[in-house]
Design brief:
Uracil-DNA Glycosylase, subunit E, 5-stranded mixed β-sheet, globular, disordered C terminus, binds uracil, binds iron/sulfur cluster
Length: 213
């Protein structure tokens, strides 16, 4: 028998409200080609957020982020430093799959950005890991991942840690080892922020005032 959902915090309700809007969104043309939208998932009190580019074929079927081949790679990378998917919030710059996995246009990224901004405002992650060039460029304006990967950068009030995209490492052993060593650097950055990778949770409960403008 399923239990009624009790004690959902105002913050998790706000997060669910964003997800509900995403699922019926028609703000950009990607709404026409998607199967289902992929809002993102993870705990509302996650200290770490991972942001990819856009859902791929498998994500478009299941409505969940990073569940295909790139997702398997991402899971192994997280496990390298004692993290699990359940510890982090995972989402994408655009929430609907572009046809043939093309890079989302700026119009599509801009149309979709209020959802990601809302997720960031509610979750208030201590650190945001961008996965690949599109997420890096969209969130920071930086265009050269090869120059900035594996180190923390500040953008407005966000701390960003750029990583290569786990899909890029699928067929490129060199990139795979760069990603693996960047994960160790991420682990160091988490320690410096006093966020042990195995317990990336807030101790107190978040309050509504924490995110109200
Ligand atoms: N690649 C992405 O950027 N995001 C996903 O969710 C899956 C693959
Ligand atoms: Fe809406 Fe974003 Fe999907 Fe475009 S990609 S339809 S803006 S949810």
């Amino acid at each position: 028998m399923s239990e009624p959902k009790v004690g959902a915090s105002p913050l998790s309700l706000e997060l669910e409200e964003i997800a509900s809007k995403v699922r019926v969104c028609t703000l950009c043309p990607l709404s026409k080609s998607r199967t289902v939208a992929v809002p993102g998932e993870g705990p509302v009190d996650a200290k770490l957020m991972f942001v990819g580019e856009a859902p791929g074929a498998e994500e478009d079927k299941q409505g969940r982020p990073f569940v295909g081949a790139a997702g398997k790679n991402l899971n192994s990378l997280l496990n390298l430093i004692g993290l699990n998917r359940e510890d982090i919030f995972i989402t994408n710059i655009v929430k609907c799959r572009p046809p043939e996995n093309r890079v989302p246009t700026w119009d599509e990224r801009n149309a979709c950005s209020p959802y990601l901004k809302g997720q960031i405002r509610i979750i208030k992650p201590a650190l945001i890991c961008t996965l690949g060039n599109t997420a890096l460029e969209t969130l920071t304006g930086a265009t050269s991942i090869s120059r900035v990967h594996g180190q923390t950068m500040k953008k407005e009030d966000m701390l960003i840690f750029p990583l290569y995209h786990p899909a890029a490492a699928l067929h490129n052993p060199k990139l795979k080892s760069v990603l693996e060593s960047d994960m160790q650097k991420l682990n160091e950055a988490l320690k410096q922020l006093q966020l042990p990778s195995s317990t990336p949770k807030r101790s107190g409960s978040p309050k509504l005032d924490d995110f109200m403008p």
